Amino acid sequence: MSARIGFIGAGKMAEALIGGLIAKNIFSKDEIVACAPSENTRAHVSGTYGVETFATAKEVVERADLLVLAVKPKHVAGLFEDEGIVIGSGKTLVSIVAGLPIAKLKSYVPDAKIVRVMPNHCCMVLEGAMGYTCDDSVGPEDKEDIARILGSVGLAVEVQEGYMDAITGIAGSSPAFMYLVIDAMADAGVLNGLSRSDSIKLAAQSMLGAAKMVLETGKHPDVLRDEVCSPAGTTIVGVKTLEDKGLRSAIISAVDDTIAKSRSMSKN
């Protein structure tokens, strides 16, 4: 049987995309196929989402023209050089492999259309943030399809490939930084008598709400911050403390260092 989209690899990120595509009615379960070398993984994905799974990438490539490459970087060469899969003209390869540039992908699949994506793991709750870049062979209609597919698991923005390392810092790695903030806020709640559970929930919901305010109102974060800060009130005192302690500088440095590391890894 043929399918509309096939997943080469069925790990957590692929599973998130499969779940999002079905939940948002982009594709039905009968239009999706996936492969994984692990029988347990195949059983889990097919049992959870009702999609057909296979043991080899070749079986998926034969069944779909739109393919998602979702394996670990160290396994990419083996797929093309050892297993010998061929993705030819007319097929589109969407790669979510970290740090793998389009030029390297082209060396494996010179005739395919290529899209490189940097997602983050918040895709697992359909609230991901990701950047993607396309090679010159990807046309307007293809891009519409890609936008719909990635949009099923969150927010996706198209950028030039030179900015993909910046996407790694702003989106790919940044949830870890947000978790640190939530944990620190929860510690302060516990310090002042709240339970750990309530503190984590309140801190996480506050971050979620603040993010939605930025996205849905379109207001600059500085404007929204000022709306919370009453003159001589409690919040402005906390803002001053954060500025005095260097929070802004620390976050900028953390993201910048992440981007620098990503650039170094891409070169290697």
List the helices and strands and how they pair.
Blueprint: E1 5-8, H1 12-23, E2 32-35, H2 39-49, E3 52-54, H3 57-61, E4 66-69, H4 73-82, E5 92-95, H5 102-108, E6 113-118, E7 128-134, H6 140-151, E8 154-158, H7 164-172, H8 174-191, H9 196-217, H10 221-228, H11 234-244, H12 247-267
Parallel strand pairs: 1-2, 1-4, 2-3, 4-5, 5-6, 7-8
Antiparallel strand pairs: 6-7
Helix pairs in contact: 7-12, 8-9
Describe the model.
The chain has 12 helices and 8 strands. By secondary structure, the protein is of the alpha/beta class. β1, α1 (12-23) and β2 (32-35) form a beta-alpha-beta unit.
Question: Reading side by side through the largest sheet, how are the strands ordered?
Answer: 3-2-1-4-5-6-7-8
How helix-rich are the residues, as a percent range? 40-55%
Report the sheet-strand fraction: 5-15%
SSE string, helices as H and strands as E: EHEHEHEHEHEEHEHHHHHH
Estimated structural class: alpha/beta
- How many distinct helices? 12
What is the averaged pLDDT score? 94
Instruction: Tell me about the largest β-sheet.
Output: 8 strands, mixed
Poorly predicted ranges: none
Please give the alpha-carbon distance between the first and last residues: 40 Å
Q: Which descriptor suits the 3D outline?
A: elongated
Q: In a nutshell, what does this entry contain?
A:
This protein has helices spanning 12-23, 39-49, 57-61, 73-82, 102-108, 140-151, 164-172, 174-191, 196-217, 221-228, 234-244, 247-267; strands at 5-8, 32-35, 52-54, 66-69, 92-95, 113-118, 128-134, 154-158. It is an alpha/beta fold and 268 residues long.
